[in-house]
Amino acid sequence: MYKYKNTKIGLVKGDITKMETEAIVNAANNTLLGGGGVDGAIHRAGGPIILEQCKKIGGCPTGEARITTAGNMPSKYVIHTVGPIYKDGTKGEDKLLYNAYYNSLKLAKEYKLRTIAFPSISTGAYNYPKEEASKIALQAAMDFIDRENEINEIYYVLFSNEDYNLYKDLLEKNNLEKA
Ligand code: AR6
Fold first, then answer.
1. pLDDT tens digits for range 3-16
2. CB of 22 within 8 A of CB of 153?
3. Can you tell me the distance from the alpha carbon of 99 to that of 103, in angstroms, rounded to the nearest whole number?
């Protein structure tokens, strides 16, 4: 566990659907109608109520975020965000990925949620280079904490050892306090 200002930043290796944070974040697509990867896992674990609510919402532009219940999962809410499909890095992918993280945190704040877990958005099917993506994930969190200071715990839930080690190195390099 690490700490930035008053916020704890934790790394977890495993399945985000098991997280007991108030919100878990889904790496969704613009339709919000489900898919593979983490999106498929969340819909399977949460049950059909998530899809029902997503249908009513009617989609989500890239970089924005929407919220539903978490159904049968231990978490209370799913914040669905849509990261960019990585092409060559010149299509504004960095800003869109940053916005996906930042807008998810803003939505959590609107709902007065204090603990949130993120997957590694866009780095699976959407091909975003992992190291660059991890830096953006942390930068967005630190900027949010600097400006809003209203979140107690942020977790990055990494599915592979490689991703977990990448985040570990990143947090060490940023000299985050150990908590
Ligand atoms: N818990 C945590 N992380 C997971 C889990 C899980 N249960 N399952 C996979 N990952 P991806 P994207 C990791 O492809 O790149 C979907 O079809 C995975 O190893 O899920 O944003 C959507 O509908 C990878 O590191 O999301 C969209 O169409 C990370 O989650 C599209 O994929 C993200 O991989 C979104 O692509």
1. 999 999 999 999 99
2. no
3. 6
Cα–Cα distance, 132 to 24 (Å, whole number): 22
Tell me which residue of 92, 174, 105, 90 sits closest to 134, measured CA to CA: 174
Task: Assign domain 2-178 to a CATH class.
Answer: alpha beta
Q: Is 35 in the pocket of ligand 1 (CB under 6 A)?
A: yes
- Determine whether the shortest distance from the Cβ of 12 to ligand 1 is under 6 A: no
> What mean pLDDT is predicted for residues 4-33?
98
The finding on whether 39 has its CB within 6 A of some atom of ligand 1 is: yes
Rounded distance from Cα 80 to ligand 1 centre (Å): 12
Give me the active site residues, please. 39
From the list 169, 167, 147, the residue with the least C-alpha distance to 155 is 167
The CA-based diameter of the chain, rounded to the nearest angstrom, is: 43
How far apart CA 58 and CA 56 sit, in angstroms, is: 5
Euclidean distance between CA atoms 159 and 103, whole angstroms: 23
pLDDT in tens, 157-173: 999 999 999 999 999 99
**pTM tops 0.90:** yes
pLDDT band at 86 (very low <50, low <70, confident <90, very high): very high
